[in-house]
Amino acid sequence: MPKARVIPIDSRKRLEEVPPADIAEGGPAWDERVASAVGFLRRRITGDYEVDEFGFDPELTDSVLMAPLRPLFHSWFRVEVRGLENVPADGGALVVANHSGTVALDALMTQLALLDEHPAHRHLRMLGADLVFRTPFVGEISRKAGHTLACNPDAERLLRRGELVGVWPEGFKGIGKPFSERYKLQRFGRGGFVAAALRTSSPIIPTAIVGAEETYPMLANASWVARVLGLPYFPLTPTFPWLGPLGMVPLPSKWIIEFGEPIRTDALDPAIADDPMTVFDLTDQVRETIQQSLYQLLVSRRSVFGD
Amino acid sequence: MGRVVLVTGASRHLGGTLARRLAELPDVDRVVGVDVVPPSHDLGLADFVRADIRNPVIGHVLSSSEIDTVVHMGVIATPRQAGGRTVMKEINVIGTMQLLAACQKSSTMRKLVVKSSTSVYGSGPRDPAMFSEGMDPRDAPRSGWAKDNVEVEGYVRGFSRRRPDVTVTTLRLANIVGPRLTTAMTDYFSLPVVPTVLGHDARLQFVHEDDSIDAIIRATVDDVPGTFNVSGDGVLMLSQAIRRAGRATLPIAAPFMPAVGGMMRRMGVADFSSEQVRYLTWGRVVDTARMRSTLGFEPEYSTLEAFDDFVAARGLNSMLPPERAAAIEATVVDLLGRGGERSA
Questions:
Q1: Tens-place pLDDT, residues A40-57
Q2: Which among A138, A201, B48, B214 could bridge A266 via Cys, Cβ 3.0 to 4.6 Å?
């Protein structure tokens, strides 16, 4: 009887690390895949995994939470990622992007783009509103996916630890704006993210996302329903809520995520983070940069849904 | 001349262990343990005085023994230990006031060490991921033990303003676990079916009972004024901790949690206070950088190791211990390997 093969079990193994022979046959052998799934299951059942202080669970994120987003990313939105070379392979950096599309799919797609497409497979640690963390299930999953509350102590702690931090300063104003105002950037918060970047001397990467606006075109806001449900807005789109659950299917717009040239802050004195004028100026500069890239991307875009 | 140390809460496990350990130190001349009930275990070289810190008699103990160091361990965590929440609050708050009043009068007093808890930061959805000592709570505790700790710390701050010549060290300890200690948390994880809050998974931190004693000894022996978070490294998710303890989970929607908690409290199976429920919903993590850099204390157990030590000592995870799970996994993989080779 032949001796059993020893199969390495590592669920974090990526496609790139799989021997070329396996790729030729269309991925790792089935028994290896099952073995890694058994290993994953064992670690989950016995609680044998590690999360960081923010509650980030890398194993769960890579193999479970991101999995349903991948078909959406590749087949549905056909996301084209540009300017990845502007995102450093290591060290702290702050990705700042426009927010749109009624639900925060744009943020999740950006996270997936950096995890799968960036050569260093970076985890984007996103900052979210407190409503996200207060909501059952959503808050739990967000923390496990590496997101944390948008507050300066958390942002600075992550940047100091050399993490890639993602922030959507428009917040609910951005995703909850009517379709008629698409690609018009809303007010950029209070500039807290700029102060965090200044204090930690981290570069700011202005990022423009095109395509998310058309996923759920919000024609109107049923504000009284929103008030009753305690939500920031309640969207009425051409399909939602008229078609029921079917109306929750996003329109298959073609997406482009473009990471712009980093705005460096390391030459500035971290103490100027306490100077509101400088913070406002820099916030405006970031906002203008993103708005300009959005316009350029829109001009070069031939159609909303086609390639 | 060595130190003369007074330890409050000496009849309980932690206070008693601390008194015994302190009495063995070479530069400590004498340790006096104080509590309202006689100690249930051996205090070693330490003396015991049965006295109530709620009573001004404590002042006589301080002056007659020429106490120079007071370690306040007398804050009670669960109503069951005290015989009701009213008594508990009285021991914690009035007791601390009386003790500090006596300390303020004392001419020999040089040092005060207070055992507090990270529960003073509260728990809520708007909390930063980690609390450092200088941060204020976003959702301050409104009741129970956590509130008592907040009040105790307030009196301690007042004391340190009035007696600047006394070195005051406050240790905010994370949940203490270990093989011998019984707390509301250890009771909770010992339940056969552990109720959790549906849709939430709290981040927890633990400190091992040995580490907590060592940290308090360090604060007692060295003169490091200030407030310090004390916890083992790393965090455990509540779901993860329950799995490591081999327990079954019973998720309960948040609105029903107080009713379930009240029922369990009445049945006497676990002490489920509203702050405990908040903690199990939102969790809490503290930054221990200052503990390392200024207090110079390095815990021996991480959060995970401390919890595992508790689980192993109680024999909780008998259904599927990690070794058996690993063996099952190896068997399955082994079978697969054979199957794969046969088909190839």
A1: 998 998 899 999 999 999
A2: A201
- pLDDT less than 70: residues of chain A: 1-28
pLDDT for residue A20: 42
**Of B238, B202, B125, which Cα lies nearest the Cα of A150?**
B125
H helices present in A117-249, as ranges: 130-134, 138-144, 152-160, 171-175, 192-200, 223-229
Residues of B (282-311) whose Cβ lies below 8 Å from A: 283, 285
Q: At what angle do helices B274-282 and B144-162 cross, to 10 degrees?
A: 90
Q: Does B327 touch chain A if contact means CB atoms closer than 8 Å?
A: no
ipTM (interface pTM): 0.89
- Reported as a single tens digit per residue, the pLDDT across A28-40 is 677 788 888 888 9
Structural domain containing residue A29: 15-46
B50-64 per-position pLDDT tens digit: 988 888 888 999 999
Rounded Cα gap, residues B204 and B241, in angstroms: 9
Contact at CB, B235 and A130, closer than 8 angstroms: no
Does residue A53 sit within a domain?
no
* The pair of three-digit structure tokens given for residue B61, joined into one six-digit string: 């103990």
Same domain? A267 vs A134? yes
Given a cut of 70, whether residue B49 has pLDDT beyond it is yes
A29 and B CB contact within 8 Å: yes
Work out the angle between the directed axes of helices B57-64 and B95-105 (0-180°, nearest 10). 40
What is the count of structural domains for chain A? Answer: 2
Domain assignment present for residue A88? The answer is yes
From CA A184, how far away is CA A294, in angstroms rounded?
A: 9
